[in-house]
Amino acid sequence: MAVFASAPGKVLMAGGYLVLERPNAGIVLSTNARFYAIVKPLYEEVKPESWAWAWTDVKLTSPQMARETMYKLSLKHLKLQPVSSSGSRNPFVEHAVQYSIAAAQATFAKDKDALQKLLLQGLDITILGCNEFYSYRNQIEACGLPLIPESLASLPPFASITFNAEESTGEDRKPEVAKTGLGSSAAMTTAVVAALLHYLGVVNLCSLAEERLQRKKDIADLDVVHVVAQTAHCIAQGKVGSGFDVSSAVYGSQRYIRFSPEVLSSAQNAGMGTPLTEVIDDVLKAKWDHERTKFSLPPLMTLLLGEPGSGGSSTPSMVGAVKKWQRSDPLDSLETWRRLSEGNSALEAHLNTLSKLAEEHYNAYECIINACSLLPAEKWLERANEPTQAEVVKELFGARDAMLRIRFHMRKMGEAAGIPIEPESQSQLLDATMNMEGVLLAGIPGAGGFDAVFAVTLGDSTKNVTQAWSSLNVLAMLVREDPHGVSLENNDPRAQEITAAISTVQLE
Ligand SMILES: Nc1ncnc2c1ncn2[C@@H]1O[C@H](COP(=O)(O)OP(=O)(O)OP(=O)(O)O)[C@@H](O)[C@H]1O
Ligand SMILES: C[C@@](O)(CCOP(=O)(O)O)CC(=O)O
Predict the structure, then answer these.
(1) Distance (Å) from CA 86 to ligand 1 centroid
(2) Which bound ligand lies closest to the C-alpha atom of 312?
(3) What is the Cα Rg of the chain in Å?
(4) Which atom of ligand 1 is nearest to 161's Cα?
(5) Given 75, 139, 207, 216, which residue has the most CB atoms within 10 angstroms?
(6) Residue-range domains of the chain with CATH
(7) Could you report how far apart the first and last alpha carbons of the chain are, in Å?
(8) What pLDDT digit, counting tens, does each position of 254-309 carry?
(9) How far is the CA of 101 from the centre of ligand 2 (A)?
(10) For ligand 2, is residue 344 a contact (CB within 6 Å)?
(11) pLDDT tens digit string along 469-486?
(12) May I ask which residue range the UniProt record assigns to the signal sequence (predicted)?
């Protein structure tokens, strides 16, 4: 039986860089851009003689990259050895496979037969990322289509991925794949881990529909998916990031405080001879101290993403530059971080107060948000007819001010560290966006740079903003906030998406 699982991409609205150090928090929104993993057996039958075999077969297919790799997996050491490949390797999926099987072996240590049989049938894994993870600007322009979301909607689902030109890729330049910055590696790793752990019987995940019916998730199962995915992601990346991307891929939108890096020390020392089953057992039992608090945008607010250029930027080198600046100028960097942290907390507090106001006085809230959605910010207060509405406007201004302060200090940090965290071209776009009717705030997500920018809009103002962006040569994406984390899918996502697709325009 095939298992289909999916995990969402993310937008780190506030907390970039700071979230790398406890106890700073990051505000992360998960999105409707999802990564899918399909796991099924490679062979129908297990040959009787295969019980003694020490190897099994794993096939990994990435149709969007036209890549297919066949591996031999040693069942003792859980090491994947490629035997044939039509492209470069995928360390995220390889580690996801190795650590998921290790977790299954650790779980079923006393009763290995069923697991052994499943593994000997081989694993056929297919991975698919929604178009929103990738930049299609160049193709849209090349096809002569307008820079509007409808052009993106006309692409076939799971379209081919374009690569950035070779001369522009590398350490300080663009990443290999033309990406939008939604965290494809974390969503991909999480989807593969979730599908495999469910397939192997380690966890029992449910679909979104089932989750709604039961009105609860099995958090213990999600915690296992989180630990295995986080471990595989860190080891594949070769560094321990803050982990907000994997956490949101598993649990959805949230306020996140990182785990102490020590929980991963056994995995970082793997390769020193400790069997992977023992390693993952240690990591699963470690004291995971990350904190996750409920957070999502207040009602009648929409997350919008706009692509000003294409191709994105490379995060690891930006983190390195910030760390270097912290070492070289401890006083100034500490002060900038303190102010950034204040700005992040203020933004979070204002948005939470707005959610509370909506809960307690929905009519007044709805009325003033809809009025503000038609006007630029300087006119908002004029439309407040009574004290609750004035309170809502005051909170809207609080959130805007906090965002402006965050942007100011992020720019300062970029200048001091010598990297383009909020480069001039992005500043101009963000200022113009914040002055548009119905825009609450706009910023650069995560580490900043040349990835897509985000805006939070009020009421029905989305259409106006996407049109205004189009005239500024910015492509509004189809990404929206979706607070759901990892889930099981009932069917092959390609079949679902194809029926849902509006039309299919073949890309060159
Ligand atoms: N559909 C896919 N099939 C196979 N590999 C993919 C697919 N999509 C992305 N990848 C691989 O996933 C990795 C993405 O990692 P990378 O760190 O560049 O991006 P990211 O996680 O999206 O980063 P960010 O958080 O900045 O968005 C790359 O190695 C890329 O080749
Ligand atoms: C710079 C950092 O704080 C955020 C990176 O975010 P993004 O991948 O640019 O969305 C790094 C991290 O949290 O791991």
Answers:
(1) 18
(2) 1
(3) 23
(4) 1
(5) 139
(6) 3-135+179-295+484-500 (3.30.230.10), 301-476 (3.30.70.890)
(7) 35
(8) 999 999 999 999 888 876 678 899 999 999 999 999 999 999 999 999 999 999 98
(9) 28
(10) no
(11) 999 999 999 999 999 999
(12) none
